[in-house]
Write a structure and sequence with these properties.
The chain is α+β, with helices and mostly antiparallel strands. It has 2 domains: 31 residues; 138 residues, Ribbon (Umud Fragment, subunit A). The protein contains 2 helices and 12 strands, in the order αβββββββββαβββ. The strands form 2 sheets. Strands 1, 2, 3, 4, 9, 10, 11 and 12 form an 8-stranded antiparallel sheet that branches. A hairpin with a 5-residue loop joins strand 11 and strand 12. It is elongated, with a radius of gyration of 21 Å. The model has no long low-confidence stretch (mean pLDDT 88).
């Protein structure tokens, strides 16, 4: 039979285990990996509404994003909202959307895995027909894969570097679509 002291000791051990688990969860979620749910069709067909994925929040502390990365960031017009789009251009690069293709510094982005399969409509004020948009310092230009239904840099401009949350790395839901991004 357990004594009162045994119950107290057992309770302290449980409490300590729970506190350690909570602290680890908070640290991991804040600085390393966080789960996100896709709310809209702006990244179709790559990501569908309801897809759930993990975002690596640690990677951009040491490395800059790469062109083609699927990135999560704080929406520049409302930093309380997280957005997800594809990285297209970096500071001092010039973006032009022409004839359904994306050009950066005069060269077409034609990698079929990231840019070759999507038609990007022209929109003002940051990507109208034949406009050449220069990305300002410490900023990025991002586009949704589903250009017909994506509010992205063409509409609201650039993503400040400080708004970057992380890189989408793995879809964990739904089960039939589990895999690396």
């Amino acid at each position: 039979m357990m004594t009162k002291e045994d119950w107290i000791r057992e309770g302290k051990e449980w409490l300590q285990s729970i506190l350690v688990a909570l602290v680890l969860t908070l640290v991991i979620r804040t600085y390393v990996v966080q789960a996100f749910k896709i709310p809209s069709g702006s990244m179709r067909p790559t990501l569908l509404e309801g897809d759930k994925l993990f975002v690596n929040k640690y990677v951009y502390r040491f490395h800059s994003p790469e062109r083609g990365d699927i990135v999560v960031f704080k929406y520049p017009q409302d930093p309380k909202k997280d957005f997800i789009k594809r990285m297209v251009a970096f500071q001092d690069e010039v973006v032009e959307i022409r004839d359904g293709k994306i050009y950066v510094d005069g060269k077409v982005l034609d990698d079929p895995a990231t840019f070759g399969k999507f038609y990007y409509y022209n929109h003002d004020p940051f990507g109208g027909p034949y406009d050449k948009i220069k990305v300002p310092a410490d900023s990025f230009y991002v586009l949704g894969d589903n250009s017909a239904n994506s509010t992205d840099s063409r509409f609201w401009g650039f993503v400040p570097k400080k708004n970057m949350v992380g890189k989408a790395i793995f879809r964990w839901w739904p089960p039939r679509r589990i895999g690396k991004l």
